[in-house]
Amino acid sequence: MQAYRQDREQALAKTALALMGDVGVVPSPDNYELFYTYASGANPQVGQIIDKMISERRPFTSNVLDDLRGRCLSSERTTQALDNASNQVAATLNALLGKLESAGRDAGDYGRALSRASGELDAAHSPDEIRQFVDTLVAATRTMEARTQTLEDELHRSSEQVNVLKSQLEDVRKESLTDSLTGVANRKAFDTELLAATAETQENGETVALVMIDIDHFKSFNDTWGHQTGDQVLRLVAQCMSENVKGRDTVARFGGEEFAIILRRTTLQNATRLADQIRAYVESKKLIKRSTGDVLGTITVSAGVARLGERDTPASLIQRADSCLYRAKNTGRNRVVGEGESDLSEMDAA
């Protein structure tokens, strides 16, 4: 059986590597995991998507691969990590309950020993008998003290283990809501935050604005300089966004080269100006190829801004912000358009 499993794993590995070569995918560990999952048939969603892309001869770009991993594999990793942590918590608690039950039995034995000694002491008259009962009580007390100290030590260790497991669970939770490439919130976290912001606005009238940001000419840049440099661009833009928002705001990778920012307690005008501040900040950065030190030029972004209305749903707000984003891109790029306005550069010139 062991030999069969090894042969199967080797066959799947060869299949995955051969397929990666056929479709022009760099054989990195992350890509290998994705195509090994495809070859094994363990994830039907991965199989359907890759089969369709191969049949339609669509390129496996770094953005496509990253999205695939985020959509199809991250949940599996999270589930596995949660299962492992939950099993450890259950094992720790079961062991702790066993120790407490044992301590309860010890306490019962000690109580019965005291009761017997008390009854016998009442009937005792000679000094030797009294001394014997006292010795018995001292011995029982010392035994109970030792068991109590052991229990305290075990409880302390169990408490430390539980704290470690709590930290691991928190790490898993954060990982499940974070885009692995850029370090900002992922689409799942964005959807959750926007839904919460919508509910809060309908309940207490809190002002919320949404900024949609897209990197200009990203595909051509990616094709010219390679996917690794493209990843560097994505990280740079995410960093510029994060450095310009407050703690209550949510910066997220919406998908591919598109990002989003949920701005709480922010008016449309202030959101639009913040988006332009980010646009200018990105443009001020010089992109340097790490492997050679060559300056590759500057990156620009376009942005659309919309305000959450009383009857808005998350979908309708995204649609309006996206419409503003497309206006910005269709009118020259490297600009910001807020709903009901012309692009910001034209506003400032007026």
Structure description:
This protein is α+β, with helices and mostly antiparallel strands. It has 3 domains: 2-60, no CATH class; 78-176; 187-349, Alpha-Beta Plaits (2-Layer Sandwich). 68% of the residues lie in helices and 11% in strands. It contains 11 helices and 7 strands. It has helices at 2-22, 29-40, 44-55, 62-123, 127-176, 187-204, 218-225, 227-242, 268-284, 314-330, 344-349; strands at 208-215, 250-255, 258-264, 286-288, 295-298, 301-307, 336-338. It has a 5-stranded mixed sheet, with helices on both faces. It has a two-stranded antiparallel ribbon with strand order 4-5.
Number of helices: 11
Sheet with the most strands, sense and barrel status:
5 strands, mixed
Instruction: Trace the largest sheet across and list its strands.
Output: 2-3-1-6-7
Instruction: Report how far the terminal alpha carbons are from each other.
Output: 77 Å
Mean pLDDT, nearest integer?
Answer: 77
User: Helix and strand succession?
Assistant: HHHHHHEHHEEHEEEHEH
| Total number of beta strands | 7
Structural shape: extended
- Secondary-structure-based class equals alpha+beta
CATH class assignment of the largest domain: Alpha Beta
At the fold tier of CATH, the topology name of the largest domain is: Alpha-Beta Plaits
User: What is the percentage of strand-forming residues?
Assistant: 5-15%
- Summed up, the domain count is 3
Percent of residues in helices: 55-70%
